[in-house]
Amino acid sequence: MTDSHPSSSKALEEAPDDVKLAVDLIYLLESHEIDTDTALSAIDIVKRDLLTKKAASPNE
Fold it and tell me: Taking the CA of residue 52 as centre, how many other CA atoms within 13 Å lie in the half-sphere pointing to its CB?
């Protein structure tokens, strides 16, 4: 497979981890044709879960 956007691919390689994860999540949601409202609701659930775990963790 040929990379049609080598500069954007290079930029993504050098992007912060949170940006890389966001791009992966967007790709996952779009490739599975997840409804926008369903995706947003799921993201809210995941965020609440992560915040709860973060609050309970003495290392963070």
Answer: 6
Say how far residue 5 (Cα) sits from the centre of its chain.
Answer: 21
Name which of 49, 54, 46 is nearest 29 in CA terms.
46
Amino acid at 11: A
Residue 10 to residues 5, 6, 25, 42, 54, Cα–Cα distance (Å): 9, 6, 19, 30, 32
Q: What share of the chain in percent tops pLDDT 90? A: 73
Q: pTM for this structure?
A: 0.72
Q: Model confidence over 29-44: pLDDT tens digits?
A: 999 999 999 999 999 9
